[in-house]
Amino acid sequence: MEYALRFSFKAINNEAEYKAMIAGLMLVKSLGIQRVIVRGDSKLIMDQINGECGVKNKTLAKYHEKAVTMAKGFDQTIFQHVPRAQIEEEDRFVLEEPDDWRTPIARYLTTGQFPGYKLEAKKTQNVSYKFHMYQGELYKKSVEGLLLLYVSAGNISKVLFEVHNGWCGSHIGGRSLTLKITRIGFF
Questions:
Q1: How many CB atoms lie within 10 A of CB 129?
Q2: Are 42 and 13 in contact (CB under 8 A)?
Q3: CA distances from 50 to 73, 78, 176 (A)
Q4: What span, in angstroms and rounded, lies between the C-alpha atoms of 137 and 157?
Q5: Which of 45, 52, 167, 185 falls 20 to 30 Å from 125 in CA-CA distance?
Q6: Is 0.70 surpassed by the pTM of this model?
Q7: How many Å apart are CA 168 and CA 176, to the nearest integer?
Q8: How many H helices and E strands in the chain?
Q9: How far apart are CA 164 and CA 67, in angstroms?
Q10: Residues 170, 164: Cα–Cα separation, whole Å
Q11: Hey, how many other C-beta atoms are within 10 angstroms of the C-beta on 45?
């Protein structure tokens, strides 16, 4: 999920970094998220939050205290420094997802509109019971009753990174890895 905030106040960079971090923590908390990775391009701020260096500025100390207090309200919070060049590179990469096999199913589930061709319309109607639209995303209903989010080609590397290096942990065998990916809600 991406979210953009616009602040209309005058502040030094470090204040703005802290305010943005606090706003982000408030947002994810309101969504009920309990495990958070906060990535920022300010090494100073990330080092301060991680306790690797102190906060000398009184104003920043207040923001620091607020951010640390908020971080304690989550089951797990990780603060990572990401170099600005890497963030700028990611910001320039915007993936436009082309229409694929999901498009007619999603259109049918949201608007009731079938594809123009009779054979395609019948096929869409026959498979649509296996799917569900939730917050604009198409999910497949699993046999266990779980809703599984389709992973598009543009997001596969993100899911694999999360499974191998993120919350899910270590490298495992193929079957176990497939089950783990399915358990976290992807197909």
A1: 9
A2: yes
A3: 16, 9, 33
A4: 19
A5: 185
A6: no
A7: 12
A8: 8, 5
A9: 28
A10: 6
A11: 24
How many residues comprise the chain? 187
The DSSP bridge partners found for residue 76 are 35
Higher confidence at residue 183 or residue 7?
A: 183
Residue that is written with structure tokens 């990469």 in the block: 93
The CATH code of domain 13-92 reads: 3.30.420.10
Distance CA 138, CA 158 (A): 18
Enumerate the domain spans of the chain: 13-92, 102-149, 153-183
Q: Find where tokens 């953009």 sit.
A: 4
41 with 87: CB under 8 angstroms?
yes
Helix, strand, or coil (residue 99):
coil
Q: What share of the chain is helix, strand, coil (3-state, %, to 5)?
A: 50, 15, 35
Instruction: Decide if 17 contacts 45 (C-beta within 8 A).
Output: yes
Cα–chain center distance at 45: 22
Q: Which residues pair with 131 in a beta bridge?
A: 140
| Residue 129 token pair | 């019971």
pLDDT tens digits, 61-118: 999 999 999 999 999 999 998 887 776 555 554 444 556 778 888 888 888 887 777 8
Contact 84, 41 (CB under 8 A): yes
Nearest to 45 by CA among 24, 27, 67, 30: 67
Q: How far apart are CA 1 and CA 120, in angstroms?
A: 31
